[in-house]
Amino acid sequence: MINISNYYSVTKNIDFNSFPEAIKKGHEFVNRTTQNGTDWSAYNTSTTIHQVIDTYFSKLDEQLNRTAPTTIPQTTTNTTAIQQTVAPRSTIQKIQKRNQSEKVQTSSSNTPPSKNNDNTNYVERIPDELRFMKRYVLLHGKTKTKEDLLRFINSLQKAIVEKRIRKTSPYAKEVKYMQDKLIDTYNEMGKSILIKISDDVVKNFTAITSGEKVLTSVQLIKKYIRLNGKKIEKADVEKLIQQMQRAVKNKKLTDNDPYAKAVNRMFGNLKIYLNEKKRTALLIEKSELNGLNELLGNCNCQSLHGVDEDFAGNELKIMNSMDFANMKFNTIGLKGKWLNLIGDPSSNFTAMVYGKPKMGKSYLCVDFAGYLARHHGKVLYVAKEEGLDLTLQKKLNDKDVKHPNLFVANELPTSLSQFDFIFLDSVNKLGLQPEDLTRLKKQNPTKSFIFVFQSTKEGNFRGANSFQHDVDVVIEVPERGKAVQFGRFNQGGEVRIF
């Protein structure tokens, strides 16, 4: 049997590219977690990571015909090896033995986690294409405003731009159909319209989307992670415990679920929390939290409370350079003159623009804001320096950038949740300091910020030097009508403003 002592000696001559995707992902997980076998501390200290790796070892054994082979279930989503495996029998037996005490009981039945035997494919995450198809069908028979449809179109476009939906998707045809119909309806409608979708489309989309459901265990894990660090009522904990027990009773959570052990551990922690009267917050150990996050892989759990520490810089990460070199990062997809000026930054970039008065920096930013609104999402332009007056109106009209996705304000609002790109013109007039910009970025880690600065008579920007070092893109307007960029993505890029 493969174990931590012999894993790398057994696999040193294996070409994992010839194996199923699930096995390849499992090998990558082991490399990443143990730093290519040099540090097994996470395996020894985290029960969840221990389970994940043991499960993968079992499946690799089966693949190598060391034990009776089994089929690794495949899903339509790009999940990790662990997400596509079933816990080995020995693990389940340990769970059942431990469950003699205060633990949630998983059924010994071989029935899949559903009420009846159907063709439903249980997955960790519903693909974005199916989510949009469900949302599209729900429009049928309802009256919607232009703003409602625009939100749908923008969400769909954003998923495509961020490559969460690709041309190679098996549902590309359905996605194109939705997009075309929504845009046509938006362009032809008045203020509101009663949406009517043909019966054939409703039937077809419903048949496709009903084929996949999220595992009950995954739903429970997500709810558990959301409680981390929060001041919660005992009643909320009791409610989650009852949901776990109900899932077992209704056979939605059985011993053949790949996350049965993780749910059992969660159940035990919740019971301990209830018995400790002085505790007001459920604190999940960091090793367990990281393990659960790895376990769920591509489930979009990074946004859950207590998991998303990367943007604050509080979590140490060590990666092998080979793995890091092969990572793929989402970019915005800038085109034309903006690509020539800036390059193609990530979808949460920061930029600073500075230049002497009357050189055109605000014209440049207004033009850029209009481009982003037309192609990439919702934009807020905070015009503190000029205010909402005739001067700003003239710039908007001169550049012809007015658009439903472009909003203007004379002050920075408290919430930026509805916007993807925020322009602050200017940082100096808004009275913001370096720590204020850092805090803004930490509070809104998925959004892009463009900071506009006033300049001194010598042409240098007004503010601490740390401003320039903390942004991805630096744009200077050194002379009237000309912008030069010397940031991280395309140093030396130039563009004429007018």
Structural class by helix and strand composition: alpha/beta
Overall shape = globular
Main beta-sheet strand count, sense and barrel state: 8 strands, mixed
Number of self-contained structural domains: 3
Query: Termini distance?
Result: 70 Å
Number of helices: 20
Question: What low-confidence regions span 5 or more consecutive residues with pLDDT below 50?
Answer: 66-117, 298-316
* Radius of gyration, whole Å: 27 Å
User: What percent of residues are in strands?
Assistant: 5-15%
Tell me the total number of β-strands.
Answer: 12
Question: Could you explain how this protein is built, in words?
Answer:
α4 packs parallel to α13 (286-296), α6 runs antiparallel to α9 and α7 runs antiparallel to α8. The protein is an alpha/beta fold and 498 residues long. The chain has an 8-stranded mixed beta sheet. Strands 1-4 form a two-stranded parallel sheet. The protein is 43% helix and 11% strand. Mean pLDDT is 75; it is low at 66-117 and 298-316. It has 20 helices and 12 strands. It has 3 domains: 7-116 and 215-323, no CATH class; 128-213, no CATH class; 336-496, 3-Layer(aba) Sandwich (Rossmann fold). It has helices at 7-11, 21-34, 41-45, 47-63, 89-98, 128-137, 146-161, 172-188, 199-209, 216-226, 234-249, 260-275, 286-296, 321-325, 336-342, 361-375, 390-398, 427-430, 434-443, 466-469; strands at residues 121-123, 143-145, 192-194, 212-214, 350-355, 379-383, 406-409, 421-425, 448-453, 473-479, 482-485, 493-496.
